[in-house]
Amino acid sequence: MATTLAKTCAAFIAAGVPADAAREAAEELAEAISGAPGGSILSDYLTPDELADQLGITERHLYERHKVGLAPPRTVIGRTIIYRRAAVLTWLRSLEEGISGTASPA
Asked: Is 58 among the domain residues?
């Protein structure tokens, strides 16, 4: 998480945010993404690491699936990627029907 925090902080600084404010904003975003107290705005989101862990795949595999359109929709804020839980559930349900969108024969 420290690497992600540093990257997020760097993205804020690159966008012209003063270093102290960038660090504070990056920490608040990390707390919000983690679902920690006070982070309710993004508590319905997963990080790539969390999603990959729940799917039983690596983050790299998740990124590769995204490149070819086989991953759930995601939100990108600067260099931070997050997945909305409801969108992931919808995506998983769509896989139950198969690629063509029709139910599999029983």
From this structure: yes
Q: Rounded CA gap, 102 and 64, in Å?
A: 25
Contacts of 2-5 with CB under 8 Å at 24 or more apart are 4/30, 4/47, 4/80, 5/30
Q: Give the range of the structural domain holding residue 52, as residue numbers without chain letter.
A: 2-96
CB 81 within 8 A of CB 45: no
How many domains does the chain contain in total?
Answer: 1
**Residue 101 covered by a domain:** no
> How does pLDDT run across 65-92, given as a tens digit for each residue?
999 999 999 999 999 999 999 999 999 9
In a domain, 37, yes or no: yes
Residue 74 lies in a domain: yes
For 25-65, write each residue's pLDDT tens digit: 777 777 666 655 555 688 899 999 999 999 999 999 999 99
- Other Cβ atoms less than 10 A from the Cβ of 2: the count is 7
